[in-house]
Amino acid sequence: MTTHQFTVRDIVHATPRAILLRLDAAGGRLVFSAGQAAMVGLADRAGRKPYSIASPPEELRRNGSIEFLIEAEPGGQARPHLEGAGPGSLVAVEGPVGGFVLPRRLPRELLFLAGGTGIAPLRSMIASALDRREPPSVTLAYSARTPGDFAFIGEWRRLSRQGRIRLFTTATREADQTWRGRRGRIQQAWIDAFVRRRLPLCFVCGPEAFVVRMIEMLRGAGVPARRIRREQY
């Protein structure tokens, strides 16, 4: 596995429980497919952890950047293997790794089901799919604990307003009166509606229990196993 070293462009809070690590990879030789992950950690430390790449390969080619969505410690601090990282820090990236990828040839319909920070590889996939000359129809169903835990929500809403994706969000726990989205877990009836009269290629990513439940629902809606791709943490 090849090790690359990139400097940190910036680190921002994507949600109260996750940070977005943006690296300057211009001039590097990292080549990856949308959906893949890499082992990440500060270059001067031994610890590395796997994280899905949250930006598409096209962004790396266009502006030399690569992004990772990383769960934070309580209080919003970076995990120990990235503790103290900031603009200019040197980060080691080993990889890419994983077979959870967007295929070169795409069907007309894609369905993405995300739980929490499982949105990271799906963001890479969706951006890459929409960058195709003839982009497919994209539906994203995104489940998070609270309205504040939806990473990249402004981006998703903009794409939805532009008619480039169909967006469904649901908050499973806390949601005040200002939240206008769905509440509770993704339901079988929603899955049935997503796949009705269509046979999408489905991508599922999130915690293990979420992934297992989504696959059960997809199969219950008549989606064959060969049309389902999964990644869990």
Description:
By secondary structure, the protein is of the alpha/beta class. The protein folds into 2 domains: 3-97, Translation factors (Elongation Factor Tu (Ef-tu), domain 3, Beta Barrel); 109-232, Rossmann fold. The protein has 5 helices and 12 strands. The strands form 2 sheets. Strands 4-3-6-1-2-5 form a 6-stranded antiparallel β-sheet. Strands 10-9-8-7-11-12 form a 6-stranded parallel β-sheet, sandwiched between helices. Strand 7, helix 2 and strand 8 form a beta-alpha-beta unit. Helix 4 (188-195) packs across helix 5 (208-220). The radius of gyration is 17 Å and the shape is globular.
How would you summarize what this structure contains?
The chain is 21% helix and 34% strand. A six-stranded antiparallel sheet has the order 4-3-6-1-2-5. Strands 10-9-8-7-11-12 form a six-stranded parallel sheet, with helices on both faces.
User: How many DSSP helices?
Assistant: 5
CATH-scheme architecture of the largest domain: 3-Layer(aba) Sandwich
Strand order of the largest sheet: 4-3-6-1-2-5
- What CATH first level of the largest domain would be assigned? Alpha Beta
Order of helices and strands: EEEEHEEEHEHEEHEHE
What percent strand? 25-35%
Q: CATH fold name of the largest domain, please?
A: Rossmann fold
| SS elements, strand count | 12
Main sheet makeup: 6 strands, antiparallel
Structural class: alpha/beta
Helix content: 10-25%
Radius of gyration: 17 Å
- What does the average pLDDT come to? 91
